[in-house]
Design brief:
By secondary structure, the protein is α+β, with helices and mostly antiparallel strands. About 15% of the residues lie in helices and about 25% in strands. It is built from 1 helix and 3 strands. The chain has one helix at about 35-45; strands at about 10-15, 20-25, 30. It is globular. The two termini are about 10 Å apart.
Length: about 55
């Protein structure tokens, strides 16, 4: 899963798990099982770290 610089924020679900991946328009990704954590991280742009996991 790679982010694209198209201005979109995305949350992708991994079927068969509780894992969610938030993908920021800047290309940064963050994984968690809590949707609130994912959206808080996405909406913190540009203050979130560009990490995966």
């Amino acid at each position: 899963m790679t982010g694209q610089k198209n201005g979109l924020l995305r949350v992708e679900w991994s079927p068969g798990t509780d894992d969610l991946t938030g993908i920021c328009h800047c290309g940064a990704e963050h994984r968690a099982d809590d949707p609130t954590e994912i959206w808080a991280w996405l909406l913190a742009h540009p203050n979130h770290e560009a990490t995966i996991g």
